[in-house]
Amino acid sequence: MTDAPEILFKRLDPKEISEKVNAMYEARKPKEVKKAEKPENVVEICEIGIDDFMKIQLRVGEIVEAEKVPKANKLLKFAVKIGDETRTIVSGIAKFYTPEEMVGKQVVVVSNLKPAKLCGIESQGMLLCACTDDDLVIVSPEKKMPSGATVR
Fold first, then answer.
1. In contact, 109 and 62? CB cutoff 8 Å
2. How many domains are there within the chain?
3. Does 39 reside within a domain?
4. Rounded Cα–Cα distance for residues 21 and 25 (Å)
5. Phi/psi at 20 (5° precision)
6. 20, HSE (Cβ side, Cα atoms, 13 Å)
7. Domain range for 77
8. Does any domain span residue 138?
9. Span 101-142, pLDDT tens digits
10. N or C: which end of the chain has fewer CB within 10 A?
């Protein structure tokens, strides 16, 4: 026998138990998944098959005329010789190139792109460029190639 009795089980406080039960319930709830924020300069990759890629016609073109598009800060208008034909192509590269430095350049052109109107001018192709957030360069053949040559 003991002189002083000992408490074996402490009396439970209903408020304290309720808080613990709620915390356990919340912990078991599925977490709301936040979509990862994509940095602005990352381009989402969209894989295509070889059959789709083979539909794109890339040709060497030579710029024979170039001028700024009136009332458009970014656009230049080009006359591009691709083989036996000359096409009008509008490109948003005025921040990086002047019309004068573009004349005579060989460029890679997407030649089977559906025509589009830019500032009222029908553009009949697209110049290929490599770019970052603050720089842009025209894609061109490493050495002089005949106008209209296929790029593979």
1. no
2. 1
3. no
4. 6
5. -65, -40
6. 6
7. 50-151
8. yes
9. 999 999 999 999 999 999 999 999 999 999 998 999 999 999
10. N
**147 occurs within a structural domain:** yes
Q: What is the CATH number of the domain that holds 112?
A: 2.40.50.140
CA angle 33, 35, 36 (to 5 degrees): 120
Asked if residue 22 belongs to a domain, the reply is no
Three state DSSP letters for 54-106:
CCCCEEEEEEEEEEECCCCCCCEEEEEEECCEEEEEEECCCCCCCHHHHCCCE
Q: What is the distance between the alpha carbons of residues 152 and 135, in angstroms, rounded to a whole number?
A: 25
Residue 101 phi/psi, 5-degree rounding, is: -80, -10
Q: What is the rounded distance in angstroms from the CA atom of residue 88 to the CA atom of residue 35?
A: 42
**Any idea which residue has 């789709």 for tokens?**
52
pTM for this entry = 0.69
pLDDT in tens, 37-85: 666 666 678 888 999 999 999 999 999 999 999 989 999 999 999 999 9
Q: Which two tokens stand for residue 30?
A: 């599925």
Q: What three-state secondary structure class fits 137?
A: strand
